[in-house]
Amino acid sequence: MTRRVLIAGNWKMNMLRADGEALATALASGVAPGVAADLLVCPPATLIASVAAKLSGSAVSVGGQDCHMNESGAHTGDIAAAMIKDLGAGYVIVGHSERRADHAESDETVKSKASAALAAALIPIICVGETEGERDAGKAESVVGSQLRGSIPETATEDTIVIAYEPVWAIGTGRTPTVDDIAAMHSHMRQVAGSVLGGSDNLRLLYGGSVKPGNAMEILALRDVDGALVGGASLKAEDFLGIAAAAE
């Protein structure tokens, strides 16, 4: 089974409109014709519409960084999946480790958000990953497996969601697991997700954790790694496009 690589950039809480539009313009003009990967950027909600406008007609798609589990209602400060879709997005990240930690999001919450995304015709990128303490205790696979089983909604199929593995201790630290560690975890994830979804041959699994142009080729060459969720390196067009080029 050939799964098309997805390189997704998570801009997190960075950039004002002028900066975001400039980066989007640089990506739209800099992406190589016939690039071998699907490219996606997930700016802050304030920038989705303007970034989508700058990327219109290019090979780069747009997504959100989070959504609420409800369609509408008295949820001050939140944003519904349909609102994100209305701004021009096609994807939304749910369950990122920073959301799980900073906002105490449970697997059940993540599942509800992913379900809302699917109902709004968005592709949820469901994030899972262990802390350093959990890995050191030999619990990495059990933790990630539990998160997968608890976070994938019943309405999902292997074609309608993306899973991103982000070892929490590697995000933004410059540290990465060994390629053997990454390969083993992604193989485990495909097995667990397959048992939940009834198959996972088409399911795209992304690796996230200090991905850079210098290490992307080695990571993307792994059998069960179908792309990357990129943080800091997605804020520079040259770095993000360098990671995309590694998909060749």
What does this structure look like?
The chain is an alpha/beta fold. It has ten helices and eight strands. It has helices at 17-30, 48-55, 81-86, 97-102, 107-119, 132-136, 140-151, 179-197, 213-220, 237-246, and strands spanning 5-10, 37-42, 60-64, 91-94, 123-128, 162-165, 204-207, 227-230. Strands 7-6-5-4-3-2-1-8 form an eight-stranded parallel β-sheet. Helix 3 (81-86) links the parallel strand 3 (60-64) and strand 4 (91-94). The longest helix has 19 residues, at 179-197. The radius of gyration is 17 Å and the shape is globular. The mean pLDDT is 96.
Summary tags:
single chain, globular, 248 residues, eight-stranded parallel β-sheet
**How many angstroms separate the termini?**
17 Å
- The gross shape turns out to be globular
Strand order of the largest sheet: 7-6-5-4-3-2-1-8
Q: Which class do the helix and strand fractions yield?
A: alpha/beta
Q: Count of helices?
A: 10
What is the number of beta strands?
8
Helix content: 40-55%
- What Rg, in angstroms, do the CA atoms define? 17 Å
Q: State the major sheet.
A: 8 strands, parallel
Series of H and E elements: EHEHEHEHHEHHEHEHEH
Mean pLDDT: 96
Uncertain spans:
none
Tell me the fraction of residues in β-strands, as a range. Answer: 15-25%
